[in-house]
Specification:
Blueprint lengths: L1 H20 L31 E7 L3 H17 E5 L2 E4 L4 E7 L3 H10 L3 H10 L3 H9 L2 H7 L6 H12 L6 H7 L4 E8 L5 E3 L2 H5 L10 H8 L9 E4 L11 H7 L1 H4 L3 H14 L8 E5 L10 H8 L7 H6 L5 E8 L17 H47 L15 E8 L6 H8 L9 H17 L1 H10 L2 E2 L7
Length: 483
C-alpha cells in the first residue's frame, strides 16, 4: 500500500512539474497607454546624429550566414569616415534605423543593447559559437524535455532562454530604452494568424496593451528567427482593452476606404491593427509569432512603409515633408543564396522536405527583389513629382506675375539605395561559393570571417556607395577608397 501511495505521489509531482515548467514566460501588461513612453523613434535622442543625412540599414535572414554578413557591414560602417557638418565622423554614427529579420536580428539586437561593444564581444558570443549544436544538446537534457512536454512551451522558448543566458545576458528592452539614443532598432517577426509583419516596437505592443520594456532581447530575436518547421512559434499574451489604448485617427479613415478602394494597402494595415484590439468575431487572447522572413525576407517592408506613408509611428515621409531630410541612404544586407540542386537532373518526384523548402524560399527571394524595386521606384517618383511641380511653377511665372501659381512642391531629396548581396561578387567561382552556403546557426570560423570580409568588399564596390562617398567626401578606411 505504501509503495502504491509513493508511486501515486510521484506521478502527481511529475504532473505538477509538467504543468509548471511547460509554459511560456508571460509578457508583462501595460498599466496605461502612454504614446510618449516606451521604445519609440521620437523618444531617442539624436545626439550628434543629424536628420539631414538619414541612414536606414536593413539586415536580412539566413541564420549565421546573415548574421556574419550583417556584422561585417557594421564593421565597414564603423571604418567608413565621412565629412559631415564640418566634422569627420564614422558613417555608423549617422545610422538612424536598423530593421532586421531572422538571422540578421542577432547582430541588430546586440548592437541595440551593447552599442560599440559589439565589436569586442559578438563574434565569440554568437558568430564563432556552434549555436545549433548547443541548442540540440540543450533540447535533449532532462530539464528541457520536461519543459517541452508542456503544451505552451516550444523549442523556440528553449532557444530564447539560451539566447538570454549565453548571448544577450538577459538584457531587456528597458535596457535599450535607458540608453536613449539612435539607431532605432526594429526586430521583425511575423504574426502567424494574419501573415503580417510584427515589429518589436512599443507602437506595436500598444495594440496588445503589453509593455515591451519587460521583454528580453533574446526572446525578441528568437521570435524573429523562429523558422517554421525547425523552430516553433513564440506566444505572447494579448491584454487588449485593459490600458485605455486609442487607435490613431488614420485607422478609422482607412476603414472607410473599403468601398472606395482609394488606398487598399492602408486599409489592410488598419485591419491588421484592429485584429489585435477588436473582440469581433473573437478576441485574440494570445499572439503567435514566427520567423520574420515569412512576411518579408529582407526586413525592408517596415522601412518602406515609413518612407512612403505618414501613417507610421516613425514616418520618414513626415520628416521629408518637414524638410528635415536632404539625403536618404538605405543599405540592404541581403544574404539570400541560391544553392545548386540536382532535382532537375532526374524525373523523380522531389521529397516533402525539399518541396516545403523550395515553396518557402523561392517565392520569398522573388518577393525580396520586388520590394527593392518598389523602394527605388517610390523615391524616384517622389523626386520626379518635385521636379514637375517646380518646372510648372517656373513656366507659369515666366508668362508673367499674373500667371504665377502657388503649388506646394515636395521637398526633393538625394537617394542612395545600396545593396550588399552575393549576386554582386564579380568572380563566378567565388560568387557561387557564397551562394551555396547553408542556412544554419553554425558555420566554421573561417567561413564567418570570409562573410565579414565579403560584406565590406561588396559595400566598397557598390556604385551608389561610391556616389555617397563622393558626395560626403568620405572613404572606407580598409580600402583607402576616395581618402
Amino acid at each position: 500500500m505504501d509503495r502504491r501511495i509513493t508511486l501515486r505521489s510521484a506521478l502527481v509531482i511529475c504532473a505538477l512539474l509538467l504543468s509548471a515548467c511547460g509554459s511560456f514566460p508571460v509578457n508583462p501588461p501595460l498599466a496605461k497607454y502612454d504614446p510618449s513612453a516606451g521604445y519609440r523613434f521620437e523618444k531617442l535622442e539624436p545626439g550628434s546624429n543629424s536628420d539631414e543625412l538619414f541612414v536606414i540599414v536593413v539586415f536580412s535572414g539566413g541564420g549565421t550566414r546573415a548574421a556574419a554578413l550583417s556584422y561585417g557591414l557594421l564593421e565597414a560602417l564603423r571604418d567608413t569616415k565621412i565629412h559631415w557638418q564640418n566634422k569627420e565622423i564614422a558613417l555608423l554614427d549617422e545610422v538612424d534605423v536598423i530593421s532586421s529579420i531572422s538571422g540578421g536580428s542577432f547582430p541588430a539586437a546586440y548592437y541595440a543593447l551593447r552599442g560599440s561593444r559589439i565589436f569586442d564581444e559578438f563574434p565569440n558570443r554568437f558568430l564563432y559559437r556552434p549555436v545549433q549544436t548547443d541548442l540540440l544538446k540543450l533540447a535533449l537534457t532532462p530539464v528541457s524535455l520536461l519543459k517541452l512536454a508542456g503544451p505552451s512551451f516550444g523549442r523556440s522558448d528553449l532557444a530564447a532562454e539560451f539566447y538570454d543566458r549565453e548571448v544577450f545576458g538577459a538584457g531587456t528592452y528597458a535596457d535599450v530604452v535607458a540608453q536613449q539614443h539612435r539607431p532605432f532598432v526594429i526586430l521583425n517577426a511575423t504574426d502567424m494568424t494574419t501573415g503580417a509583419q510584427f515589429p518589436f516596437i512599443q507602437d506595436q505592443f500598444d495594440l496588445l496593451c503589453a509593455d515591451l520594456s519587460g521583454i528580453t532581447l533574446g526572446r525578441a530575436a528568437a521570435a524573429s528567427s523562429a523558422f517554421p518547421g525547425g523552430l516553433t512559434p513564440l506566444t505572447f499574451q494579448n491584454y487588449a482593452g485593459q490600458c485605455d489604448y486609442r487607435q490613431p485617427p488614420w485607422v478609422d479613415l482607412a476603414l472607410k476606404d473599403h468601398q472606395s478602394r482609394v488606398n487598399v494597402r492602408r486599409t489592410a494595415r488598419a485591419e491588421d491593427r484592429l485584429s489585435y484590439t477588436s473582440a469581433e468575431p473573437t478576441p485574440r487572447s494570445y499572439i503567435h509569432l514566427t520567423d520574420g522572413g515569412v512576411a518579408d525576407n529582407i526586413g525592408l517592408r517596415e522601412p518602406l512603409t515609413a518612407i512612403t506613408s505618414l501613417n507610421n509611428s516613425w514616418s520618414v515621409l513626415r520628416l521629408i515633408n518637414l524638410k528635415k531630410v536632404d539625403k536618404l541612404v538605405v543599405i540592404v544586407v541581403n544574404a539570400a543564396t541560391n544553392p545548386a540542386t540536382d532535382r532537375d537532373k532526374t524525373p523523380n518526384v522531389p521529397g516533402l522536405i525539399e518541396t516545403i523548402t523550395a515553396a518557402a524560399d523561392v517565392p520569398l527571394d522573388n518577393y525580396s527583389f520586388d520590394t527593392l524595386e518598389i523602394l527605388r521606384k517610390t523615391v524616384n517618383e517622389f523626386n520626379e513629382s518635385a521636379r514637375l511641380i517646380s518646372g510648372c511653377k517656373a513656366l507659369a511665372t515666366a508668362r508673367g506675375a499674373q500667371c504665377a501659381v502657388d503649388i506646394p512642391a515636395p521637398h526633393q531629396i538625394e537617394f542612395f539605395p545600396i545593396e550588399v548581396a552575393f549576386e554582386y561578387i564579380e568572380a563566378a567561382d567565388e560568387r557561387n561559393w557564397f551562394k551555396n552556403l547553408p542556412t544554419s546557426l553554425e558555420l566554421p570560423r573561417e567561413t564567418v570571417d570570409k562573410l565579414r570580409a565579403i560584406g565590406r568588399q561588396i559595400l566598397s564596390e557598390d556604385p551608389e556607395f561610391k556616389r555617397l562617398m563622393q558626395t560626403l567626401h568620405g572613404c572606407l578606411a580598409i580600402t583607402g577608397q576616395n581618402c
